[in-house]
Structure formats: C-alpha cells, structure tokens
C-alpha cells in the first residue's frame, strides 16, 4: 500500500553520474528530487550521498543531451527544464588541454571547459604571459589539413611521447586569479628589449618559479629550424579553396569548450586570429613577439601567403639571423648595456615631452595642406597583354590623385581624377631591377578599375605608396602615421637592396647552413643548395647588425607589408550568384575574389558598414553599407557564425585605445560577435 503522503508528492528519481577518480566507489547515483529544488541544493544532496571527503568546489553539472552547463546554482530544476530523463554528469569545470602554439610547441595546461572560449583564451594568455589575449583564439584543425599527416602515420611509427611543456601547476591552471601586476599600466619591464630574455626580477611576478622559468625561456625563444622533410609533410595550401580550409575550425568565442565537443586532453591550436597587433612592446611582449614571429614564419614557409622571390630571400635571411642569435650566448651578455640605453632613451623621451616638441613643426602641420606632385609613369593594361606606358604630371591631394599632360597644365582641368578611398593598394617592386610600381584596384560600379603607377626611385615610391595606403583607409598625408609609414617602406626596401661582395661570395663554403630550412619547398626545388646559401648570405648582409628582438620585429613588419597579409579566406555563395566565390576578411574590409583567377572583384570597407546580421534559419550573412549597398551570402567552407564573429571582432578591436584601462570589455565583444541565435 502507498501512503497518501507518498502518492501525493511531486518527487521523482533523477539518475546522476559523478566523474571522480576513486576506485571501488560507485559513479552512478539515484536521487529523489522535486522540480522546485535548486541546482545548488542538488549538488549538496549528491555530495552527501557520495560520502567522499574531497574538494568539490570545481565541480558542476553538465547536461549531456542538451550540451550545456547548469552553472546558475540558484535556478530550480523546473526553470532549467530538467526532468527525469535528463542525463546529468557531475564533473570538473577545469580540465587538461593540449595547445599547439604558433611556434609548434605543445603546452599542456588546465583550462576552464565551462567558461566561454573568449574568457578561457584570456586565462590561457595570462598563464603564457601573452598580453592582448583578444587577438588570439582556439582553432580545431580541420580534416582536410590532416590528410597528409595521416598518410605518413600509416607508413612510419612515430614515438608516442612528444616534447610537451607541462604548465598544469601554474596559478590560473588551478583556477586561481593570475597576478594582475603583469597587466598594469605602470608595470616594470619584464624582458630585455634587445635580446628578449627575461629580466632578473621577472620570475618574482609568478607564484610558481619553475613554471615561470619554462614560460619565459621556452616560449620567448625561437625554435630551431625544422628539417625540409618535416616541412614537406605539413599541409601546404595550393589554391584559395585550400587556404579557406585553414580558417574553417575557429571555435565560437561565445560558447564553452564542452559545448563545442572538445574533450579532456584534446589538442587545439592557439593562434593569432585577428591581424591587428596592438601596442607591441619588447619590454613586456617577448613571448607575444616571438609567437607572432613564429606564426608569420610558418605562414611564409608553408606558402599560406604569397611573396616574391626577393621577399622570400629577405625572410630567409632574417630567419637565419634569428636562429643564429638564438643559439649564440652573446645575447645573454647584452642586458647590462641595454639597461643604460633604456635609461637614456627614457630621459630623452621625457625631455621631448616636457619641452613639447618642435613648435614650428606643429604650426606648419596645422596650416600646410600636404600635397605630392611628381612626374610618374601611368601604365594602363590593355587587351592582348599590351600595356600603354606614358609619363604624366601627378598631383596627390587629400585622398585622390589627379593627373595632367604636364606640369604647366596642372592649373587647368585634369585628364582624370582617381578617388582612392576604399581601393586596394598592391606593391609591384623589384629592387634589383629598379622597378618601383604601385598597383591600384579602384572600386567602380561593375567591379574594380586597375591602374598602375611607376615611380623612378625608392624615395619617390615610399612617399607615394604611403600616401596611397593611407588614402585607401580614408586618411590623408596630414595624418600622424604618414611619416612612420614612409620610413617603414624605406626600411623594407633597404633590406631588399643588397649587393654581392667578395666576403659573402666566399662564405658559403665556411658556413654550416641548411638553406632548405629557411625557404618554402617551391624555392628548394628551384635552386641548388649552394645557390640558396649564397643568396641568403647576400641578403643577410643588410640585417646582420640587428639584435634578436629587432630582427623578429622586422620580420613581422615585412610580413605585414605583403599584399595578402591579414586576409582570412572563406568559400561563399553570394545571393543571386550561380557560382562560388572566395570572401577575404581583413581588419578593415571584405573582398570578393574570383575563385578561378584569384582577382579581386569588389571591396567593401567596414567604415562604410551600417549593420550586419545573420538569418540563422538559412545560415545567411546579410550586410548593409552606405549608399544603399547591401550584400548577402552563405558560407560553404565553414559555419557562417565564424565570419559573423570575424567582422564583429575586428570592429571590437578597432575600439581599443592606449588611454583606456587594460581590462577588456567582454560584454561589448559578445554584443558585437555573439549573433544570438
């Protein structure tokens, strides 16, 4: 007989699984619960029933069928929607994860599987001492990029153990807050700005000495060059569609790792997702600079980004220089000298600040409207591959270029006026051949209008190229970034401008260099080993005096100056189109690219964007721009949420300022990228 009390009650049995490591203790428990029992109360009842004395504070309920955490402990089971058929697992929120860093080093650390990925990445970066965590994210390697490795695995047996840096004892790994000292505005320099080695007091910032030493010494140092055989085994994209595969596996920053089917001890890639490296400072960013350098290095070696033969040799020379300095002990002895230099530099900076700089220049900048005027060659591509080259008098004012028949006719009407706002600017340079060209792709109603400008020398090219780059972003030569841009272009040209000397010619015999480690496989096939060595040593003459950190920063700058830098590709189908296209997503624009030819069709600037949203039912991204321009597309190579997050992420990063506090506005990030379904 059932008593009236039991018959009338609303209790029901709930089967719970406990994820613990104790042998001989049950893992499944049945509890009698009611719908108005809150999640915290359920935890308490379960722990009392388990009868194991341990710290349960990191445990929470994971709802297997719905793939969600029950983290709001004050919510009742009814409010959560939990019924008798629910499979709840009582498990730890922090679990071990393997992360492959940009330098191909694998670290093993404890990460929150219940926090949103954005927060988890922020915690990981604190552990690894990488500032600006918003620039990074986690990437699942897609199946297409693993095929080559799988074939190799069948033929050869690799050792099961890999050289893994274990950081499971660091404070953030244990769920403790990291020392905020590393991120304060008045922080002490923690790296030597010349060698990138940790300053003597660095280790005291960490609560765990051994973890600090490992992080500082290994992650801030460049890895030794890989063998050509290893390089040949890695995935190398051949087409734009192949490059699109590289960006298919980005995790959703607004969901947790568990919600995205990541399991304990899985391996993910930690990569710089957004190519806007804000406030790089050698005193604090040795690990960050090294990891950006490594990501750039691998992108060059695996041909994820195209570059010319001349540029490849510069990248090879810088890599050779970095590897040489990393192996030598000389960098360790430069700390004392650099400390004096730092003090002198700080004092001179303070002096300039207090004096207020040069006043006459300030007045000049306000009253003078910057203008460029020169004789340049205009190259207009014609049919049947013939080009018409003619010299005109060009005048660059604000964000547009006008050209005239000659200097005398410049007071009249121009032959044509080119508005560069929103255009694509592509360098067309060969220093050895004295070719200094600028390719402009100017948006017009039916696509892109191609115009080539040919300059006479390096100085003229640097001034016009910098003006074009700024104008494409809607900025004029009055902008403070104009002169630094000119200097950056000149320094890159200077690296390209080397001459063969007798010393460099005789050196290849004496130098123990494996040139195949510093160039992509395409160039290994094109040149013999001795030829490559000689050419790399030629290029090395221009960079041989650089310090280790300077060489890495120059490498990053050279990578940033490549035409394809910062573009992440996706295969899409535009609304109304019958064929697939490639969409390039950059920090300031979207580019529609012809999949067959690789030519840009149209460019849309974020600065002209009014709104963007996703129709989740048909998985379509829709974007509205100024002047009633609107586009819509479905993404074929990845989830449309990835592109949506990319756009919102770049807009979020554009709001950063050195004046603001270092703390991230996480709420704003999710507002711009979340795209609530």
Description:
This protein is of the alpha+beta class and about 675 residues long. Helices cover about 35% and strands about 25% of the residues. The chain is built from 21 helices and 24 strands. The strands form 4 sheets. The chain has a 7-stranded antiparallel sheet, covered by helices on one side. The protein has a 7-stranded antiparallel sheet with strand order 21-20-19-18-24-23-22. A hairpin with a 4-residue loop joins strand 3 and strand 4 (about 70). Helix 14 packs across helix 15 (about 480-495) and helix 20 packs across helix 21 (about 665-675). The longest helix has 21 residues, at about 335-355. It is globular. Pfam families: FERM_M (PF00373), Kindlin_2_N (PF18124). Keywords: Cell adhesion. One of its GO terms (cellular component) is focal adhesion.
What is this entry, summarized?
Keywords: Cell adhesion. The protein has 677 residues and is α+β, with helices and mostly antiparallel strands.
Give a quick set of tags describing it.
single chain, 21 helices, 677 residues
How much beta, percentage-wise? 15-25%
Helix content, binned percent: 25-40%
The count of helical stretches stands at 21
**Gross morphology:** globular
Largest sheet: spatial strand order: 14-13-12-11-17-16-15
Structural classification? alpha+beta
Q: Strand count, sense and closure of the main sheet?
A: 7 strands, antiparallel
- Stretches where pLDDT is under 50 for at least 5 consecutive residues are 149-161, 176-186, 201-210, 333-340, 347-367, 500-506
How are the secondary structure elements laid out?
Elements: H1 4-8, E1 12-18, E2 28-33, H2 39-50, E3 59-63, E4 68-70, H3 77-80, E5 88-92, E6 94-100, E7 106-112, H4 117-128, E8 136-139, H5 147-155, E9 164-166, H6 209-219, H7 228-233, H8 240-246, E10 267-272, H9 286-301, H10 309-327, H11 330-333, H12 335-355, H13 359-367, E11 371-381, E12 387-397, E13 400-404, E14 416-419, E15 424-430, E16 435-444, E17 447-455, H14 458-472, H15 482-496, H16 502-510, H17 521-526, H18 529-540, H19 548-560, E18 568-574, E19 581-585, E20 589-593, E21 600-605, E22 609-615, E23 620-625, E24 629-635, H20 640-653, H21 666-673
Parallel strand pairs: 1-5, 6-10, 7-9
Antiparallel strand pairs: 1-2, 3-4, 3-5, 6-7, 8-10, 11-12, 11-17, 12-13, 13-14, 15-16, 16-17, 18-19, 18-24, 19-20, 20-21, 22-23, 23-24
Protein name: FERM domain containing kindlin 1
GO molecular function: integrin binding
Family: Belongs to the kindlin family.
């Amino acid at each position: 007989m059932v008593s009236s009390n039991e018959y009338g009650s609303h209790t029901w049995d709930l089967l719970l699984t406990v994820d613990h490591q104790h042998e001989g203790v049950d893992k499944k428990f049945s509890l009698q619960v009611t719908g108005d029992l809150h999640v915290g109360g359920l935890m308490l009842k379960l722990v009392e029933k388990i009868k194991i004395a341990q710290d349960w504070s990191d445990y929470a309920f994971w709802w297997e069928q719905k793939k969600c955490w029950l983290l709001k402990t004050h919510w009742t089971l009814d409010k959560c929607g939990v019924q008798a058929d629910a499979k709840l697992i009582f498990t730890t929120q922090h679990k071990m994860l393997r992360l492959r860093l940009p330098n191909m080093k694998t670290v093993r650390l404890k990460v929150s599987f219940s926090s949103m990925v954005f927060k988890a990445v922020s915690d990981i970066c604190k552990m690894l001492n990488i500032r600006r965590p918003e620039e990074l994210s986690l990437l699942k390697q897609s199946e297409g990029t693993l095929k080559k490795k799988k074939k190799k695995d069948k033929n050869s047996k690799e050792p099961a153990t890999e050289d893994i840096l274990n950081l499971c004892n660091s404070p953030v790994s244990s769920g403790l807050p990291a020392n905020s000292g590393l991120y304060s505005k008045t922080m002490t320099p923690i790296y030597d700005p010349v060698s990138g080695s940790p300053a003597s007091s660095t280790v005291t910032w960490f609560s765990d000495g051994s973890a600090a030493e490992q992080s500082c010494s290994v992650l801030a140092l460049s890895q030794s060059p890989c063998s050509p055989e290893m390089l040949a085994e890695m995935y190398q994209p051949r087409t734009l569609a192949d490059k699109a595969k590289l960006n298919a596996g980005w995790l959703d920053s607004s969901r947790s790792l568990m919600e995205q089917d990541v399991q304990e001890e899985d391996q993910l890639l930690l990569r710089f997702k957004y190519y806007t490296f804000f406030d790089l400072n050698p005193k604090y960013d040795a690990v960050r600079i090294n990891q950006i350098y490594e990501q750039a290095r691998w992108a060059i070696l695996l041909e994820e980004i195209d570059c010319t033969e001349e540029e490849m040799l510069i990248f090879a020379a810088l890599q050779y220089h970095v590897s040489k300095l990393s192996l030598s002990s000389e960098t360790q002895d430069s700390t004392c000298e650099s400390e004096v230099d730092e003090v002198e530099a700080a004092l001179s900076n303070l002096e300039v600040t207090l004096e207020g700089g040069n006043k006459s220049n300030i007045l000049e900048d306000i009253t003078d409207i910057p203008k460029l005027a020169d004789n340049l060659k205009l190259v207009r591509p014609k049919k049947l591959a013939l080009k018409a080259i003619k010299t005109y008098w060009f005048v660059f004012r604000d964000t547009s270029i006008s050209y005239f028949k000659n200097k005398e006719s410049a007071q009249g009407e121009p032959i044509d006026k080119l508005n560069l706002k929103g255009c694509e600017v592509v360098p067309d340079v060969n220093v050895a051949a004295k070719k200094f060209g600028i390719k402009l792709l100017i948006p017009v109603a039916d696509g892109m209008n191609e115009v080539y400008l040919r300059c006479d020398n390096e100085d003229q090219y640097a001034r016009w190229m910098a003006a074009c780059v700024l104008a494409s972003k809607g900025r004029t030569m009055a902008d403070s970034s104009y002169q630094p841009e000119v200097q950056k272009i000149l320094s890159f040209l200077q690296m390209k401008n080397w001459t063969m000397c007798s010393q460099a010619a005789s050196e290849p015999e004496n130098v123990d260099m494996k040139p195949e480690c510093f160039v992509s496989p395409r160039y290994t096939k094109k040149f013999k080993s001795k030829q490559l060595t000689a050419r790399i040593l030629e290029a090395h003459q221009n960079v041989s005096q650089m310090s280790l950190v300077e060489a890495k920063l120059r490498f990053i700058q050279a990578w940033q100056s490549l035409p394809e830098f910062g573009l992440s590709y996706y295969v899409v189908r535009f609304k109304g189109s019958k064929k697939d296209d490639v969409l390039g997503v950059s920090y300031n624009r979207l580019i529609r690219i012809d999949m067959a030819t690789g030519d840009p069709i149209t460019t849309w600037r974020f600065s002209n964007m009014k709104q963007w949203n996703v129709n989740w039912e048909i998985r379509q991204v829709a974007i509205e721009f100024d002047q009633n321009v609107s586009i819509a597309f479905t993404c074929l190579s990845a989830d449309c949420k990835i592109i949506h997050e990319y756009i919102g992420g770049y807009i979020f990063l554009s709001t950063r300022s050195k004046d603001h506090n270092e703390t991230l506005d996480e709420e704003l990030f999710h507002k711009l990228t979340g795209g609530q379904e």
